[in-house]
Amino acid sequence: MSEQKNSAALGLKGRDAAVSSSTSSISNEARPHNWQLDTIVAQLREARMDWRSAQLRSELGGRELPSREILRDVVEALCGALFPMRLGPTDLREESEDFYVGHSLDAALNALRGQVRLALRHAARISQPHAIPSAAANDEQATQIVAEFARGLPALRRLLDQDVMAAFHGDPAARSVDEVLLCYPGVAAVINHRIAHHLYRLGAPLVPRIISELAHSATGIDIHPGARIGAGFFIDHGTGVVIGETCIIGERVRLYQAVTLGAKRFPRNETGSLEKGLQRHPIVEDDVVIYAGATILGRITIGQGSMVGGNVWLTRSIPANSVVTQASLSDTCPSHDADL
After folding, report:
1. Which 3 state secondary structure label does DSSP give 124?
2. Which of 190, 220, 250 is the endpoint of a domain?
């Protein structure tokens, strides 16, 4: 009996200790700590003001930058509208397909117009820091851009169909076009690129780059929205692929993981700043295959029907129907230093 009493007493003591510890923990959590926030906030304000002064920037009028979160939702809605029975809601039925597409597009296009309007206002303020952008002009331009974008969606869908079929026919592991559309990161990146490039050509600032970088973050595939890419484009596996702003890629081109289509060098102007807008990335003609790890730099041309082998470093043009491997480069090319 005494052992039972002792055990019970120990149990009560243990319970009381646990309750006391829990209460102490809660009170410690609830007790505010002096983070010296007034000082930190003031120092952060000082850092902001120093940067804005150096950059001749003013933030009067509120935040004027597009939202990554809203644009992510816009792209998701556009994907659902483009491929409703594959990328739309799981309970969608064919008889309600058109209603869903119309509803999704209405929401997505209105949200997109708001983001383009913000980007236009921001671009105007950057280019003319002391001018007050016209809200009416920005709104009209944003509406025109998004309306033209919407009119191009049927053609965009047909172009994406060719990309999806290229992926299906180009990968022996693919069992269906549905698998390709639902699973392949290369296809997801190309869908985002087609959307972003369409907006880029229409003159929407910043928004296309955010859309491209959303795909980059999700897939590891970095395609600048300015790159011009023909129909039937397929990136297999995909991780680490980089395609620069001024790339021109023909039809039925296939890339594998870790391919870089980049710039060879970065000229500077008389002030030492990098020159912008130069045609500095490769031209890849129709029916070219570029295998994993190849690096192709500069404004060179990869001729139609050529094959570039894995891990090749290439900084010179090659004619149509060429086969370039590391072994062939070591036999026929100038030294690496001379080529650079």
Report:
1. helix
2. 220
Q: How confident is the model at residue 128 (pLDDT cuts 50, 70, 90)?
A: confident
Q: Could you tell me the CATH number of the domain that includes residue 69?
A: 1.10.3130.10
Measured CA to CA in angstroms, residue 240 lies from 23, 109, 118, 257, 301 at distances of 51, 31, 31, 6, 22
Claim to verify: residue 278 and residue 201 sit in the same structural domain: no
Give the range of the structural domain holding residue 176, as residue numbers without chain letter: 62-220
Per-residue pLDDT of 281-308, as tens digits, reads 999 999 999 999 999 999 999 999 999 9
Q: Where are the beta strands (DSSP E) in the chain?
A: 222-223, 228-229, 234-235, 242-243, 248-249, 254-255, 260-262, 283-284, 289-290, 295-297, 301-302, 307-308, 313-314, 323-324
Amino acid at 300: I
| Burial of 93: CB neighbours in 10 Å, binned 0-12, 13-18, 19+ | exposed
User: DSSP 3-state assignment of 340?
Assistant: coil
| pLDDT at position 25 over 70 | no
Residue 237 in tokens: 């596996």
Q: Say whether both 272 and 191 belong to one domain.
A: no
pLDDT digits (tens, 9 = 90+) for 44-97: 999 999 998 898 777 766 778 999 999 999 999 999 999 999 999 999 999 999
276 and 135: one domain?
no
Q: Which of 211, 157, 205, 151 is nearest to 181 (CA)?
A: 157
With both helix axes pointing from N to C terminus, report the angle between 207-219 and 185-201 in degrees, rounded to the nearest 10. 170
- Tell me which of 27-36, 39-48, 186-195 is least confident: 27-36
Q: What per-residue string of b and e applies to 152-191 under the rule 16 or more CB within 10 Å gives b?
A: bbeebeebbbbbbebbbebbeebeebeebbeebbbbbbbb
Same domain for 204 and 97? yes
